[in-house]
Amino acid sequence: MNGKFDYTLRKQSGGPGQYARVIGRIEPYDDVFAFENRVVGGAIPPAFIKACERGFRDATQTGILAGYPVIGVKVVLEGGASHPVDSNDRAFRFAACQGFYQGMATADPIVIEPVMQVNLEVPIDCIGVVQGDLMARRGAIDRLEFDGDRAVMTARVPLAAMFGYATTLRTLCSGQGQFSMTFSHYQPIRN
Q1: pLDDT class for 114, splitting at 50, 70, 90?
Q2: This model's pTM is above 0.85
């Protein structure tokens, strides 16, 4: 779902003030982040467009859900406004950051977690307890093969559930099991 933003920064403190307005939308994107400038007619002077992009990138470092970084978004800057005296890079950078948060609040974001591909080699008589432990860790077994008196497994398990796994596997297999893991993908966190 797309999120829309229309954020105006107006700050007056006696001397030169701060003014910046950014208008646009946030869309899902297949890569980490993208920025597209669709401002026409000089609504935002070209000198401030880079400050806007930096502000949007800054905002992706701490998202609105649980403070985790935001990935998979495209920010489309469609318009805005400036003031001949009170507009500057800092004002547009701050306005873009706040506009991003405003847009994300309407975009229905989700929290995702990294999922690891876990490759295991364990004695055949340990298969049941190892599979049970992986399932308790929200894992899914992808492959199970036998090689003599050893079982070779591949599973997908959320990274958060894998902390301390070396000790657990050693205990389950009396020190005769081994594993390795590599990043597989991200998935929405299930409750």
Answers
A1: very high
A2: no
> CATH fold of 3-105, please?
Ribosomal Protein S5; domain 2 (3.30.230)
Phi, psi of 76 (to 5 degrees): -110, 115
Q: What are the extents of the domains in the chain?
A: 3-105, 112-188
User: 112-188 in CATH: which number?
Assistant: 3.30.70.240
CB under 8 Å to 91, separation ≥6 — which residues?
Answer: 9, 11, 18, 19, 20
User: 132: number of CA atoms within 13 Å, CB side?
Assistant: 6
Are both 3-105 and 112-188 of the same fold? no
Q: What does the pLDDT look like over 163-189, one tens digit per residue? A: 999 999 999 999 999 999 999 998 888
Structure tokens at 34: 């993208």
